[in-house]
Amino acid sequence: MIQHILRLALAGVFLTAGALKAWEPARFALDVHHYQLLPWALSAAVAFYLPWLEIVCGAALFVRKAERGAFGIIMILLTAFLAALLSAWSRGLDISCGCFGGSGSANYPLAITLDLALLAAAAFLFRSLNREAKPAPAPPADAHADAAPTPPHPDRD
Amino acid sequence: MTPLRQAALLCALALLPTLVSAAWHRGVWADDPARLQPGEVSLDAVKSWPEPPLWVDARPRAAFEAGHVPEAVLLNEDEWAALLPGFLARWQPGARVVVYCDSVECDASASVARRLREEAGLPDVFVLHGGWEALR
Q1: What are B13's strand-pairing partners?
Q2: Pairing of strands B54-57, B125-128
Q3: Which among A48, A72, A94 has the least Cβ separation from residue B22?
Q4: Which chain B residue has the Cα nearest residue A48?
Q5: In chain B, what residues touch A102 (CB-CB under 8 Å)?
Q6: What is d(CA A52, CA A62) in angstroms, rounded to the nearest whole number?
């Protein structure tokens, strides 16, 4: 149950954030540019691509054949956002976060806390998927099997 | 499909709407905030001047009253005739004047700067690139 709620929340955040930024790429390009990490052409490229990547990944969280890849991208994106926020905060930049489009000065502690919470949720869900995918444990060996050689554990290969 | 292949597929999928959006909003590529128009000056350049300029706020009065550069003079086109004498009283010969409006997208600062050059005959009048958005 908690996994369904977390997955819905994560997808909702990425779909909303992506849609708001995709609607106004010019404004988002300025937000990216204000981080002073990229030249204008790259800021514009990020402003065009990132919102759609967020939308595609948010939607892919509901597609079984694509969910692992989506979780991977989402965790990489959240790590990159965290690095950008920490970098801007350490340089004392008074800029808009750009997280959900819009304007106003970034509330760095709030934005970083939200980023970390989403990152933790994504990591938890990704780990849960891997647990579900592991094969069921082998049935207990009977007395006659004691002499048989033990097959190597797949995780130790 | 491995997670890596899934991720590659999702990245490729996001490229399609990106290309459409980039073509639709192609003007964004040319909106480099660092590219100055004739008569414009960047905030960094102003900060490097030995003497601070006389700031002129070309925005509407309500925006000026909500916040402005310390010591800035309000001079907008709506109240041009009423505000110009007050500005001229503050201006000193040899002083540089920097006019600002909201952001890179507004024209008020360029209009006020042009009128100060042409109608008031002031020589050193500049438009602040990025306007109030750059100053905040």
Answers
A1: none
A2: unpaired
A3: A48
A4: B18
A5: none
A6: 16
Per cent of chain A over pLDDT 90 is: 59
Does the beta-carbon distance from B10 to A66 stay under 8 Å? yes
Note whether A69 contacts B9, CB cutoff 8 Å: yes
- Whole-complex ipTM: 0.78
Query: CB–CB of A25 and B29 under 8 A?
Result: no
> Strands, DSSP E only, in B36-136?
40-41, 54-57, 73-74, 97-100, 125-128
Whole-angstrom distance, CA of residue B96 vs CA of residue B125: 6
Task: Return the amino acid letter for B19.
Answer: L
What are the structure tokens assigned to B125, written together? 């009048």
With b meaning 16 or more CB within 10 Å and e meaning fewer, what string describes B87-96? beeeeeeeeb
Helices A40-60 + A67-90 axis angle, to 10: 140
Pairing mode, strands B97-100 and B54-57? parallel
pLDDT tens across A44-87, in order? 999 999 999 999 999 999 999 999 999 999 999 999 999 999 99
Q: Is A5 exposed, middle or buried (0-12, 13-18, 19+ CB in 10 A)?
A: exposed
Rounded to whole angstroms, the Cα distance separating A70 from A63 reads 9
Closest of A7, A106, A65, A30 to residue B34, by C-alpha? A30
> In degrees to the nearest 10, what's the CA dihedral of A12, A18, A20, A23?
-140
- Residue A103 confidence class, pLDDT cut points 50, 70, 90: low
Whole-number CA gyration radius for chain B: 21
Rounded to whole angstroms, the Cα distance separating A33 from A39 reads: 7
> Is the CB of residue B43 less than 8 Å from the CB of residue A41?
no
